[in-house]
Write a structure and sequence with these properties.
Aspartate Aminotransferase, domain 1; 15 helices; 2 domains; 14 strands; binds pyridoxal-5'-phosphate; 4-stranded mixed sheet; 44% helix; alpha/beta; Aspartate Aminotransferase, domain 2
Length: 387
């Protein structure tokens, strides 16, 4: 048996050991973290809906109606009219015949890929895809090939030779640690030309990109024929919890029968589904949230470009500043913490070796004053780096 203590010590020595930061109170732009107030710049609550009074109210009211637990799996007795209504609204929102709720994005990805692919099939994934997509491929027993980031030419070379078995191309819509977009129009063209599945996980695009918050697909103007399998999560821009897959009737019916992470798990609490119905409506209706977010992003980038920090190319709320070593990312994060700014460092294996970073995220509920605090902190960091 190997020594867990030795491995933990090794993580500690390489500055890779992760720790909890304990929040008291709600998620939001200003949080109480480990007992101290801080401005939060590392949440995925991009639209500021996680603690929105109407969303909270919907959860409370629905708990009075449905109670807390769903009591069982969707296909036993855990599926309520709250789940059904939310699925209908998500289908309508994504312009697809049907949607199916999962308990989390991780589970949705495991469920979809392992249900659709089997030994003898091939799956092509972007090197920077979310861990759940890569794990799903392993679980499916299909042959996994990871292509260089956003390199549709590599996909084109690999997908072309016809072999027995099905092919699937899988990509994040917006890359979770980098904030850039996948070349979806090219991937869609390849998938159609080679009769491959195309699956897009738009955890960071939905609610944020596109005029109505339709995400990466709306940004590019792609429909359900071009991207037949769309996964979205509810714990990010929509501020609640859970995930869904949207697609045509046969896809959804098939997943209901075959996706093991759908079948063998307790359905999410109905009150959470009711809260999500409200947050989805707000996300669609309140265009100012996306407009304000866009303005914050533009001003952030304008300012940071003058600080001499390595800011990555991105027009989404995910704005990475690359530190390189884990040690430096940790030091930067601690430096900002002293200024009352919360940005957790992102280190390997979440990102490739040598690309540890501050993954700064902006939210529609950040004010001009919050942004000014962040910029002051980053200006200091830039000055101290230059010596
Ligand atoms: C967060 C995330 C997931 C996982 O979703 P959860 O609902 O948090 O399990 C899946 N894919 C991507 C791209 C993500 O960023």
């Amino acid at each position: 048996m190997r020594s867990l203590r030795a491995e933990l010590n090794d993580l500690q020595r390489r500055q890779l050991r992760r720790e909890h930061r304990v929040l008291s109170g709600p998620q939001g732009p200003e949080v109480l973290v480990d007992g101290k107030p801080a401005v939060n710049f590392c949440s995925n609550d991009y639209l500021g809906l996680a603690a929105h009074p109407q969303v909270v109210g919907a959860l409370q009211k629905a708990a009075g109606v449905f109670g807390v637990g769903s009591g069982s799996a969707h296909l036993v007795s855990g599926y309520s009219d709250a789940h059904r209504a939310l699925e209908g609204e998500l289908a309508e929102f994504t312009g697809r015949p049907r949607a199916l709720l999962f308990s989390s994005g991780y589970m949705a990805n495991l469920g979809v890929i392992s249900a659709l692919l089997r030994h003898g099939d091939r799956v092509f994934q972007d090197r920077l895809n979310h861990a759940s997509l890569l794990d799903a491929a392993v679980l499916s027993r299909a042959r996994l090939r990871r292509y260089p980031h956003a390199d549709s030419d590599a996909v084109s070379r690999w997908v072309a030779p016809a072999q027995g078995g099905d092919c699937m191309i899988v990509s994040d819509g917006v890359f979770s640690m980098d904030g850039d977009l996948a070349p979806l129009p090219k991937l869609a063209a390849l998938a159609r030309a080679h009769r491959a599945w195309l699956m897009v996980d738009d955890a960071h695009g939905l609610g944020v990109l596109g005029a109505t918050g339709g995400g990466s697909l709306e940004h590019y103007g792609l429909d359900s024929r071009e991207v037949p399998i769309l996964v979205g999560t509810l714990g990010k821009a929509f501020g609640t919890f859970g995930a869904f897959v949207a697609g045509d009737t046969d896809l959804i019916e098939y997943l209901m029968q075959k996706a093991r992470t759908y079948i063998y798990t307790t359905a999410p609490p109905p009150a959470v589904a009711e809260a999500t119905r409200v947050s989805l409506a707000i996300a669609r209706r309140e265009v100012w949230r996306r407009t304000h977010l866009g303005e914050l992003i533009a001003r952030f980038r304008d300012a940071v470009k003058g600080f001499g920090l390595p800011l990555q190319e991105s027009f989404t709320p995910i704005q990475p500043v690359i530190a390189g070593s884990a040690e430096r990312a940790l030091a930067w994060s601690r430096r900002l913490a002293r200024e009352g700014i919360l940005v957790t460092p992102i280190r390997p294996p979440t990102v490739p070796e040598g690309s540890a970073r501050l993954r700064i995220t902006l939210s529609a509920v950040h004010t001009d004053q919050h942004l000014a605090r962040l910029l002051d902190g980053l200006r200091l960091l830039g000055e101290e780096e230059r010596g």
